[in-house]
Every structure is written in C-alpha cells, then in structure tokens.
C-alpha cells in the first residue's frame, strides 16, 4: 500500500442542529450543539487512517484545547501528525456549522492557525512529501501554499488530488497544471470556471474547461445524484447509493479520502470512485465530520437502501 500525505486544514467544528436554515434577519431556535473534530484536511487524513490507509498530515493548530483534541483524534486512527505545527498565540481553526432537518448544512470558517500554513512549513516537512506517493490538497489554507505544495509534488512525480473547497474564482491556469484529479461539486465547478451549471451538458462543459486548464481528470460530485468523471478520453456517470441522509458534513471529504486510498491500493479509477461513493453514503447517515467516517469493514458490508429513500 502506498503512502498518502494530506496537506490542509484542521478545525474544531461547532455543530448546531436547526429545524430549517435561518433566512437573513431571522432568529430561530437550535435543537442541539456539539464540538466535533473537523477541517477538510483533517477530515480527509482521519478518513484515510480509519479506512486502514498509511497517511500523514501537514497543517497547524494552536496551543489550546481544540488543537490538542484534534491531534489526539488523528493519532487515534494512526495518522502521522509530525508535520502538524503547534503555533503559540494563534487559535486553532474553527468552523460553525448549521445542519437542518434534511441533513443539509451551511458552514462559516474562522481560519486561525490554518492561515499560518505557509511555504516554510512545507519546506520544514519536505521529507514527508518526498516519502509519500499521493498528495491530497484542499483550499482551506492559503492558496499560495497549496500551489507551492502542488508544484513540489508534481515535480517529484507524486499523484495529486485536489478538493477545490472553498472554491476560489479566477485562479490562473498554472494553479491547475499537473493536478491528476480535481473533485469539485456543482457549485464549486461554476465558481472555478465562471460558467453557469444547470444541465448535464453544462457540467460536461465545465469539466472540459478544467481539462483545458491542465487538470488530467475531473470528478464532479453531484450529491444524491452521483458523480461524473470527465477525462481526455471518456465521460462516465456513476449513480449514487440510496440512503437516508442525516448530515452531509464531511461526506465529500470521506469520498476524497476513500478515492485516494483505493488508488494507493492499486485499484482502478472506477473502483476508487465506487469505494468513495460507498464510504460517503455511510457518512451522510451519521452526524458530524470525523464522527461520521466509517471503518473499512463497514464500507465492505454496506448495502444501499431500496425503494424511495434517497440521499
């Protein structure tokens, strides 16, 4: 099994359950509150570890209780956290997440120490980058750092997977060149390409734009509708597994992690997508970020619902 390195964010999630999403100017009553380890980078590293992969992480936390809890949680599933710096005087990143009765969420992020993940931190942990085979990146740390790490990984011949969230408009084509797999959702694809996404043809056109920018393979996640793979050679749609969704937080991170893990095991792209879909289908049936991630045994035993229930 190959080694995976995740470079990205660590957040403590403050999750608030609500009956419906509040509108502008509206005050509503929440029904629950929980502090759950999160952050897109940490979610992905945790998921790889819990699914049985070999994984390390580069990122940063504060010298506070949230940082300690995040590191402890990653270590509990075997993640190598030697590349996670502890920064004095800066709070650990935080995310405030509202989850409605249908399992949909909205998120506000406070960067904290995630904003301090810079080129110097990558250079200080260059041995981790050299030792890995697959690098997973997101956009919750500075874009300049992501591009720097991506370029190093590409030059070293690593497989690069980029989850472009939160999406940033107007990134230059050089940012995307050499990325092996980019995994936007529909909204992120629209932001990245500047194109309206409403139909399947719009999705295909948007994916082709990303290919023109230098990405080798585009995976567009479509939630309960499945996902779309677009490469220079083919276009393929993969239907979603039917489940009863409770909370979609970290479902995309779970997919990305399981996809990367499958590649590290030598599985085909189609098999990797299938593993990602099964893992993320389980994740949406549970509350929270890292608390929703399944173990590999659960993924192997997973059976989707029949009938009318959908995620």
Helix content: 25-40%
What spatial form do the alpha-carbon principal axes imply? globular
Oligomer: single chain
Catalogue the unreliable spans: 307-311
Indicate the structural class: alpha/beta
Biggest sheet, open or closed, and with what strands and sense?
Answer: 9 strands, mixed
Overview of the structural elements:
The chain is of the alpha/beta class and 311 residues long. It contains eleven helices and 13 strands. It has helices at 40-50, 65-75, 119-124, 126-131, 143-155, 173-176, 186-193, 200-212, 251-264, 269-283, 296-301, and strands spanning 3-7, 11-17, 32-38, 54-62, 80-87, 93-99, 105-110, 134-137, 159-162, 181-182, 217-221, 227-231, 235-238. The protein has a nine-stranded mixed β-sheet with strand order 5-4-1-8-9-10-11-12-13, with helices on both faces. A four-stranded mixed β-sheet has the order 3-2-6-7. α1 (40-50) crosses α9, α7 (186-193) packs across α8 (200-212) and α9 (251-264) runs antiparallel to α10. The relative contact order is 0.15.
Index terms:
311 residues, four-stranded mixed beta sheet, disordered C terminus, single chain, 34% helix, globular, nine-stranded mixed beta sheet, alpha/beta
Secondary-structure blueprint of this entry?
Elements: E1 3-7, E2 11-17, E3 32-38, H1 40-50, E4 54-62, H2 65-75, E5 80-87, E6 93-99, E7 105-110, H3 119-124, H4 126-131, E8 134-137, H5 143-155, E9 159-162, H6 173-176, E10 181-182, H7 186-193, H8 200-212, E11 217-221, E12 227-231, E13 235-238, H9 251-264, H10 269-283, H11 296-301
Parallel strand pairs: 1-4, 1-8, 2-6, 4-5, 8-9, 9-10, 10-11
Antiparallel strand pairs: 2-3, 6-7, 11-12, 12-13
């Amino acid at each position: 099994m190959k080694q995976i390195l995740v470079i990205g964010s660590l957040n403590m999630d403050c999750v608030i359950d609500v009956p419906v999403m509040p509108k502008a100017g509206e005050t509503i009553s929440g029904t629950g509150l929980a502090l759950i380890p999160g952050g897109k980078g940490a979610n992905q590293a945790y998921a790889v570890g819990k699914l049985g992969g070999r994984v390390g992480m580069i990122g940063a936390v504060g010298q506070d209780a949230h940082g300690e809890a995040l590191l402890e949680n990653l270590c509990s599933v075997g993640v190598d956290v030697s590349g996670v710096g502890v920064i004095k005087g800066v709070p650990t990143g935080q995310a405030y997440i509202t989850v409605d009765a249908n399992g949909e969420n909205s998120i506000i992020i406070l960067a904290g120490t995630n904003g301090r993940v810079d080129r110097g931190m990558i250079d200080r942990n260059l041995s981790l980058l050299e030792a890995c085979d697959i690098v997973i990146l997101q956009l919750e740390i500075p874009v300049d750092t992501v591009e720097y790490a991506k370029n190093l990984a590409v030059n070293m011949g690593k497989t690069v997977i980029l989850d472009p969230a939160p999406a940033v408009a107007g990134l230059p084509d050089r940012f995307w060149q050499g990325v092996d797999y980019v995994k936007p959702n529909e909204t992120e694809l629209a932001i990245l390409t500047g194109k309206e996404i409403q139909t399947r043809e719009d999705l295909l056109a948007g994916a082709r734009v990303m290919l023109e920018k230098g990405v080798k393979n585009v995976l567009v996640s479509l939630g309960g509708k499945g996902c779309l793979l677009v490469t220079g050679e083919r276009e393929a749609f993969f239907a979603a597994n039917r489940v009863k969704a409770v909370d979609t937080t970290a479902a995309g991170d779970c997919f990305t992690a399981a996809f990367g893990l499958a590649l590290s095991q030598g599985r085909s792209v189609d098999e990797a997508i299938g593993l990602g879909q099964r893992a993320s289908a389980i994740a949406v049936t549970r509350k929270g970020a890292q608390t929703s991630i399944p173990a590999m045994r659960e993924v192997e035993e997973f059976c989707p619902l029949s009938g009318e229930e959908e995620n």
